[in-house]
Amino acid sequence: AQSVTQLxxxxxxxxxxxxxxxxxxxxxxxxxxxxxxxxxNQGLQLLLKYTSAATLVKGINGFEAEFKxxxxxxxxxKPSAHMSxxxxxxxxxxxSNFGNEKLTFGTGTRLTIIP
Amino acid sequence: xxxxxxxxxxxxxxxxxxxxxxxxxxxxSNPNLYWYRQAAGRGLQLLFYSxxxxxxxxxxxxxxxxxxxxxxxxxxxxxxxxxxxxGFYLCAWSAGGGYTFGxxxxxxxx
Lengths: 115, 110
Hints:
The complex is a heterodimer of chains A (115) and B (110).
Chain A: E1 2-7, E2 10-14, E3 19-27, E4 32-38, E5 44-50, E6 56-58, E7 64-68, E8 73-78, E9 87-94, E10 104-105, E11 109-114
Chain B: E1 3-7, E2 10-13, E3 19-26, E4 32-38, E5 44-52, E6 55-58, E7 65-70, E8 73-78, E9 87-94, E10 99-101, E11 105-109
């Protein structure tokens, strides 16, 4: 079974500051990990995914995440926050990357950008 | 290209009324289909998934049901809505290339 824990349901950062959204996972098999972004009243958009290749994964909109097995973490970062980054972010885990495995989501982190 | 359509976008229904939400996928064959619900402060919860026509798996016991009458059609239903059914419902599909989500339906039961 897989699960993810997102630390911090709300995170606020100033425009131009570092964004750090935390995600820890639990998995009985090698995990595949994902970050999704959701804008108000919209579906989820894939930011990036880890598929057991490079541990540092680069995604869209300047985001990246690093898979750390020793810490069971997959934190999402962006060097400089932009107002358009304000949204809700979800970390998710599955047992494969084939897309046929069920995704298990964290409870989400709402990111607010302070002008 | 693959697209996913979900409707309606918003819905307000009285307690005890029936529900039917529809999701259709274009540009792919034999996708896996999913219904998720997002309740305030609770993240996304998988409700149902389907690996083929007529094949439905339920993840949690609830007041809802799902059906897949055609390969690329997935329907979420209820005979009698409860207040606790309020939430944001998302349909998704996967076919070996990751998940694609619909734009969601905001359901408010009053």
